[in-house]
Please model this.
Amino acid sequence: MSELDEIRQRRMQELQQQAIAQENQQRMAQELEVQKRQAMVQILTPEARSRLTNLRLTKPEFVDQIEMQLIQLVQSGQVKSKITDDQLKDLLRRLTAPKRDINITRK
Model:
């Protein structure tokens, strides 16, 4: 076997290992997403889940952050019953940064 063949074979093995690692990572991400969805079903009322789903269309990172905070609240025992839409709205208001008003005056 020539040196070039050995290099090709090693490179092929590296690519296969990378592909396997990537598949495992994707599978773990999917499992985490399924677990988050199941947790949201238990934590939120249908209206609140709908609101989060709509918000995910515009701010997916923000919704991921909210979901993790909700899961932590439930795990720490701070939430005893399902979170309603009004409670979620209040939480979203508190977590969003206040917008600054910009006034432009011309002289």
